[in-house]
Structure formats: structure tokens, C-alpha cells
Amino acid sequence: MSTAALFNPIQLGPLQLNNRIVMAPMTRTFSPGNVPNDLNVAYYARRAENGVGLIITEGTCVGHPGANGYPRVPFIHGESALEGWRKVVAAVHAKGGKIAPQLWHVGAIRKAGIEPDPEVPGYSPSGLIAPGKENGVAMSKQDIEDVINAFAQAAVDAKAVGFDAVEVHGAHGYLIDQFFWAGTNERDDEYGGDAVQRTRFACDIVRAIRERVGDEFPIIFRFSQWKQQDYNARLADTPEELAAFLAPLVEAGVDIFHCSTRRFWETEFEGSELNLAGWTKKLTGKPAITVGSVGLNASFIDEDKRDMVDASGVATASIEQLAQRLEAEEFDMVAVGRALLQDPDWVNKVKDGRLDELQDYSKESLTQLV
């Protein structure tokens, strides 16, 4: 089989990409003082130089006191941080690449003591980090309004420093996802209720961004069924439920969906071979990015023993199979994470047919991250 489908250009509104390979967002905590520095510039420029079609940055914290949950994560607010990102964007563009920041608020994941505001609590819909597990405070209406404005301002600033799009992080049990998930959203106002009503917070964020950046600036939205608090959690058990969940986000202004799964080759619903990205594209008509263990070998198990590949030892789906599904237009783009973190030349190796040169992923092999 051929991998050629991975290297077809694609036009997504105003966003012209040279190929279908996306660099997935990966938190690295390489930004002391929460400001992107020369290491960040070199890291992203190197992936652009080596053929990544679209880079989505590590999560960048919006300008709300509770947005940050980890040390040394870059912000996307404040003069110093924005100037750092301006240098990153310029370097990526100089190498012919395109780049979008992932806009992030961790919500109830936040623990006390995280700098630069160690006394700030975690914020969440109902003061819950998981079903029945309290952490932080339930958000007031003013808190909700403040966070919506923080996301919108981050998008405005991202556009001003030259980014090509923005991605809103609505996945993995962080703040926006905490509103989606019945286990963490017990509100009885307009931001709670059934699965469709629980999309309101995300939709208000997307609408606020759209109003501030205009119609020609792409908004990517990342979502997932699984949560880091519960790998078996699901927002939708049927295609009908998924369609109902996605429709308000489309109406709010999402241009592209980034559909996070742990293993891209796994089917989403019984009776169909489509994965989550495949179903999302089918139900919405919007471009979809698939992601999940692309390029990982079957021996890889995460350090906390929650396997990213099948624990039974079944090998990861091949790069050729991935390309075949892309050629069949099941989805439009493919996000690559750890494999591209480890090997900046991963894209070129695949493009040149040098699959035998692809390395098995291991944490021990990450000797340089730039």
C-alpha cells in the first residue's frame, strides 16, 4: 500500500495545508515563567522544517487565574508570553509551516500551590473533579463569563501575533469537558441539564471567539469520549447521541473537529468500522482530525500502566492502513503525537517510504526535545 494520501494538500477555508499530518498538542513544561523561549522556537521550527502540515501547540493557558494546572506551561496572555509566541510563529512560518495554539483551561484538575498564583483554587461546573470527588469551587455566573472572555481574548491575541488558527481544548476531563460530562456537571441552571444543554459553555466560548476574530479565522475544537479521570467514560453511546452533542458546536462556529481517541483504529459504535473522527465527519460534514497512538509500537505502555496500545499485545495499526482510511475520506487529517515528539524527521521518513527507519517509541529515547 501507499502512504501518498497523507501527503495530499488540503484547503480548509482560508487554511491551506501542504499535507494531512498534524502535530498533536503535547504538554512539555519547557517554559519557565510561563513564557515561550528559544527552546520552544527551535522545537516548533524543527517540526515545520521537517514537513508537518499543521502544528498544534502544547496547551496554552488562557488569561484566567485558575487556567493553569502544571508548572512551566506557556501562557497565551501577557506581553512577555505573547512576544514569545510571536517568535515561535515567525520561525514556523519561515520554515513554510502553519501553526495554531491550543487554548486551555484545566478546571478542577488544578491543585493548590501551582504557580504563579498558588492560592487560586480549581474551578469547575460543580466543584467536582470526578463523580462524587470534590476539588476546588463551583463556578459562579461571573466566573463563567470571565472564562468565556478569557478564551475569546486569547484567540484575538493569537490572531494578532500571527497564528493561522486556534484550537479550543474541550477534551480529556479539563474544564470545558467537565461541563460536558454528567459526572462533573450537576448544575441546575442553563449550563447544566441534559447532554445537549451541557454543551452551552463550550458553545458560548466558540461564539465569543467567532465574534471577536471574524469568519475567516479557523476554529478547531478538540473533544474526546474518554477522560483522564475515567478512561471508560463516554459522552455518546450511539451515533444519534453524538449527532445531538455535535450539532450545537457546529452551529456555534466550529470549523474543524479534532477527535481524540487512545487508538485511532478502534471503531466507535457497534456495526460500523468508522472511528470517532469518521463518525464526526459523517454526522457534521465538517473536516475531522483523527488521533490516537499513530506510530506507536505494541510494546509501549504508559508509565502509570494505563496502556496506550492494546494490553493484549496486538500491534498498532500500520501507517499504510492509516493512509488507506484517509484515502477513503473517513477523516481529513491525522494528528501524530509521541512518535513526532521523539523523531522530528518522522514525516519525511514516512513520505520517502523509509518506514524501516521509524523508531519504536520509548521515554528513554527522548534524549533531546528540540
From TrEMBL:
In the UniProt record, the signal sequence range is none
Q: Which CDD domains match?
A: OYE_like_5_FMN
Q: Which domain of life is it from?
A: Bacteria
Q: Name one Pfam family in it.
A: Oxidored_FMN
Can you give the residue ranges of the NADH:flavin oxidoreductase/NADH oxidase N-terminal domain?
A: 6-356
MF-aspect GO terms: FMN binding; oxidoreductase activity
- Extract the InterPro entries matched here: Aldolase_TIM (IPR013785), OxRdtase_FMN_N (IPR001155), Oye-like (IPR045247)
GO annotation, cellular component aspect = cytosol
Name it.
12-oxophytodienoate reductase
